[in-house]
Amino acid sequence: MKRNPKSAWQNEVELEIPFHDLDPLNICWHGHYVRYFEIARSALLRTFDYDYLEMRDSGYAWPVVDLQIRYIRPLHFRQRIVIQTYLMEWENRLIFEYIVRDAESKERLTRGRTTQVAVDIETGEMCLISPPVLKEKLGVK
Predict the structure, then answer these.
(1) Domain annotation covers residue 51
(2) In a domain? residue 72
């Protein structure tokens, strides 16, 4: 995986585009990219033990409040892709960046970004800074 010097927290996953993700034009329907980002983001969160079950158990939900996708090249049936995921910001919100590449050629096919904010499950209030449990999981002060 090519390292992003801006992010200490990064990961990559490899997926194969399944038949049921194709649209009538036999390319991957654009809405499925959000699911691929979710798979990649969850894998990165697991690397520091703060995936969605751990978030819930710590008392916080982290809804996605912003999503950006730049489609560069279409994805095709049985194409193997690699999704590189980077945690770019964590102090006040979680910002993840994604780069989708063809697994064989390494050509960049898509890039994206999601923003999530912490919400106290008990009160339903949005947190203006990330809760201490996130800093603990990341090993930062």
Answers:
(1) yes
(2) yes
pLDDT digits (tens, 9 = 90+) for 65-80: 999 999 999 999 999 9
Environment class of 27 (CB within 10 Å of its CB; exposed 0-12, middle 13-18, buried 19+):
middle
pLDDT (average), residues 37-44: 98
For residue 40, give the CATH number of its domain.
Answer: 3.10.129.10
What's the pLDDT at 5?
A: 58
Per-residue pLDDT band at 97 (split at 50, 70, 90)? very high
Cβ burial, residue 68 (10 Å; 0-12/13-18/19+):
exposed
Number of structural domains in the chain: 1
HSE (side-chain half, CA atoms, 13 Å) at 36: 31
